[in-house]
Amino acid sequence: MEEDLDAHALRRQGWSISAIARHLGRDRKTVRAYPSGERAPHQRRQPPDAFVPFLEYCRQRLCDDPHLWASTLFDEVAELGYPGAYSSFTEALRRYRVRPHCEPCHATKGPGPGGDRAPAGRGDPARLDRTSRSARRVGRR
Question: Which of the residues 38, 49, 55, 69 could staple to 33 if both were Cys, CB 3.0 to 4.6 A apart?
Fold first, then answer.
């Protein structure tokens, strides 16, 4: 905010945009945007979210088939012009909570693979071969 006030004050004193930019250590286009209110100091413009134009299409497809794989849906929206990467696409699906809730799927899921037990051989020193490298990595004391 102080930088914005400095730019306004210097401009009123007759300084050129280039002189103000040099004085503040900013680009001329940035300093020119301060007085017009197009930009505030220390705030970056957020690029438009590339997913938003495809949001309703994804919602509709997932309402039609809640078990549709994200990779299949990504292929479809990429054909329609989605410019982002798969990782950006799946992150947007989560951010916008596009996938509908499926009660049967959530009811069958437990705490993880194998229920609440850890897979055999992991974290249980009694199950590890004491002469193996993995036992040494666990750090017998």
Answer: 38
CB 96 within 8 A of CB 50: no
**The pLDDT of residue 92:** 95
pLDDT digits (tens, 9 = 90+) for 14-35: 988 899 889 888 888 888 877 6
Give the count of domains, the chain: 2
Q: Is residue 123 part of a domain?
A: no
C-beta of residue 7 within 8 angstroms of C-beta of residue 34: yes
Q: Is residue 93 one of the residues assigned to a domain? A: yes
31 and 58: one domain?
no
Question: What number of residues does the chain have?
Answer: 141
Can you list the pairs that 86-93 forms with residues at least 24 positions away whose Cβ atoms lie under 8 Å?
88/50, 88/51, 89/51, 92/49, 92/51, 93/58
Residues 6+ positions from 140 with CB-CB distance below 8 Å: 125, 130
Looking at the chain, the whole-number percentage of residues with pLDDT higher than 90 is 38
Residue 21: give the domain boundaries: 2-36
Cα–Cα distance for residue pair 111/107, rounded to 1 Å: 11
- Domain co-membership, 32 together with 57: no
User: Is-contact 62 95, C-beta < 8 A?
Assistant: no
